[in-house]
Amino acid sequence: MRIAAHDTISPSAPLTSLPLVIEQRSARLPAALQLVPLTIMMILMAIPFALIVGLLAGEPSARAVIAERPLASAQMTLGMLMWMGLMAWPANRLLTKLTGMRTVSIDGHQVTVVDKGLLGTNTWTLPLTSFEGLAHHVRASLSGTRHELILAHPDRSRSVLLAIADRFGKSEVEGACTLLGMREIPARDLYEQRRPEPDRPAPVLVGAGFSPATT
Description:
Blueprint: E1 8-10, E2 20-25, H1 28-58, H2 60-68, H3 70-99, E3 101-106, E4 110-117, E5 120-127, E6 133-141, E7 144-152, E8 160-165, H4 170-180, E9 184-185, E10 203-206, E11 209-212
Parallel strand pairs: 6-9
Antiparallel strand pairs: 1-2, 2-3, 3-4, 4-5, 6-7, 7-8, 10-11
């Protein structure tokens, strides 16, 4: 799942204590408004294909024509399936936004992510020490600008969105880093695919939060 796939996070308060349980959802109304015309287009495209199948089932002469020109029939069928596939891909993404929810749990030692969607539930867990740090990322889109705190992993697919706001001050970012025992890393690191560090030291408890161990 993409890092920025969700638009709302609960609780919306800053990261202040462990353990953390964060629920993330996408804005459902925009997804529904996009899914309706896409579904109509898919239905309209499927109608000619259904008519052809019905004709073949009821007319021996039509089956004879298909048998005489198998290559043309295969090309027509392949073209129809390709168009349906192109429509199905964005439809699946919109359905995921409508039905999906992510729950992120952090207890100071490990990160557990549960993704619930239309097709079931996917759960994965990683030690907190496998993450590289916390990135303060500013994302600009047509709807405006939003600030994000992202727990970055060398495998981009495992990076986790933790908080969003109109703005995060330096003290809020530093406080979240102290809580998780993470260093702040540049936002550009989120776009690099790297391998995990094999011998990264584990965090140790310092006061109310966690701080990386030093050697």
